[in-house]
Amino acid sequence: EKGGYDYFMLKEIAEQPKAVSDTLLGRIDASGQLHLDEIRIPTGELREVNKIVIVACGTAYHAGMIAKYAIEHWTRIPCETELASEFRYRDPILDSRTLVVAISQSGETMDTLMALRHAREQGARVLAICNTNGSTIPRESDAVLYTHAGPEVAVASTKAFLTQLVACYLVALYLGQVRGTKWGDEIQSVIGQLARIGDDVDAVLETMEPVRELARGLADRDTVLFLGRHVGYPVALEGALKLKELAYMHAEGFAAGELKHGPIALIEDGVPVVVVVPSPRGRSVLHDKIVSNIQEVRARGALTIVIAEQGDESVVPYADHLIRVPATPTLLQPMVATVPLQVFACELATARGNEVDQPRNLAKSVTVE
Ligand code: F6R
């Protein structure tokens, strides 16, 4: 049932192009129009939404962090993303014009369920993004957009994450389309590129052998740090989370701009630092700032592992290891940049002799608060 792979996680990483395509299927037509009538919230109501709050845990929370960038950019609706376990305890401000988006692979995560119950009690509408048909979270929500990742067996989430991102992009682009923003042309072009993103994920998977080799060489390390900015920041957090749960290593993700506000003190000789570099074509200011960060940590002895777009030559002099990903629109880059981090963590876990599919102390679905 592992389809020839040693672990479910490897199988599920490999299934990502298909999971992504399945999640897009029927939702983008040949003319680039989005069809999300299945969520059954009348477009009139979607036009009235004046605030979006995303609640989720763990990896799903990282998808929600990325969604915030996409939603605010394409819809101009204020959006916040909050850990489900924190949400209801601070008495959040919600009303009937608030759209709460609850993201959950299993649909059974108690923290997320309690957050959405609280939101509905306050009169907010709740849209679930979920991978499990008929599970509790979609049943208790006003609307649902299913991801079609298929069953995810490995405890560490991989293909569910990429499909959560797809669902988030679809919601953001759909809201943009329904409400009409000045980004209409960009939205049209991104929809076209989203429709083909499965091929980009496939291309990344084809080039993972050097990443595996690199991981094996780092099996005796204690710490790995991850840096990113903009949507690369949640990617850094996700890379660190995967490494903690699978390799049991100390791993931390930082917003690269925060480096100088403290974390740079952690840099010492030989510490591996993984840096997610945004496209030089999109927000080029950010790109140049992060290239400076790579230089800064390298000057202090860090071993730099750089994830950068194909053709970005500016990073070459500062990368001890360079991992190439296909060029994508800025906001879609997490779809390709996350994949090497999944492979990296999986291989490190294997090299350290850990149980990849069943990491210690973890459960696939966390049904207690
Ligand atoms: C990490 C992981 C967890 C889950 C989290 C939420 O690899 O799997 O962090 O993402 O427990 O689970 P769901 O999405 O089922 O609500």
From TrEMBL:
**Which domain of life does this protein belong to?**
Bacteria
Q: Give start-end of the signal peptide.
A: none
* EC number, as in UniProt: 2.6.1.16
**Primary role:** Catalyzes the first step in hexosamine metabolism, converting fructose-6P into glucosamine-6P using glutamine as a nitrogen source.
Q: What is this protein called?
A: Glutamine--fructose-6-phosphate aminotransferase [isomerizing]
Protein's organism: Streptomyces durbertensis
Summarize subunit and interaction data from the UniProt record for this chain: Homodimer.
- Record bears the keyword Cytoplasm: yes
Active site per database record? 364 (for fru-6p isomerization activity)
Keywords, ordered alphabetically: Aminotransferase, Cytoplasm, Glutamine amidotransferase, Repeat, Transferase
Shown part of the complete sequence: 247 to 615 of 615
Respond yes or no to whether keyword Protein biosynthesis is given for this record: no
Cite the SIS domain residue spans from the record: 42-181, 214-359
**Molecular-function GO term, any one:** glutamine-fructose-6-phosphate transaminase (isomerizing) activity
Q: Where in the cell is it found?
A: Cytoplasm
* Chief location bin: cytoplasm
Q: Which reaction does it catalyse?
A: D-fructose 6-phosphate + L-glutamine = D-glucosamine 6-phosphate + L-glutamate
